[in-house]
Amino acid sequence: MSQVLWNLYLNAAQAMPGGGLLGTRGARQVGPDGEAWVALEISDTGPGIPSEAEGRLFEPFFTTKPDGTGLGLPIARRIVEEHGGTLTLGPGPAGGTLARIRLPLREARTDATDPGR
To answer: What one-character DSSP code corresponds to residue 96?
Structure first.
């Protein structure tokens, strides 16, 4: 997930070369089925998503940057989806771009038999 955040923050910073505001919000949400989620929003005050790029941002090798590879956002989305979540991009509330990550919230294992420890 650190790769996802790194990519989204880097894109936001590159969208505001002259400066701007970068915001992050997170919240725990519970759906009607009782399932818990963590929601994370990253916003910037850059120029926003060009109309010709809408719907193509997650296509491999599509980029709006002269030196971009077009792989950052597709990889970020794949990572989020592998964790059972979603990643969307759209216009921010005050202009710019808003990235939304939604991930299922799972209880952390704390016993000594947890192979991830």
So the answer is: S
Q: What does the CA dihedral 27, 31, 37, 42 come to, rounded to 10 degrees?
A: -50
Burial of 70 (0-12, 13-18, 19+ CB in 10 A): middle
What is the tens place of the pLDDT at every residue in 19-56? 999 999 999 999 899 899 999 999 999 999 998 888 89
Compute the average pLDDT of residues 57-71.
Answer: 87
pLDDT over 90 at 114, yes or no: no
Q: Which pTM does this prediction carry?
A: 0.83
CATH architecture of the domain with range 2-104: 2-Layer Sandwich (3.30)
The number of beta carbons lying within 10 Å of the beta carbon of residue 13 is 14
Q: Does residue 15 contact residue 65 with C-beta atoms inside 8 Å?
A: no
> Strands 97-104 and 86-91: what pairing?
antiparallel
Query: How far is the C-alpha of 26 from the C-alpha of 84, rounded, in Å?
Result: 17
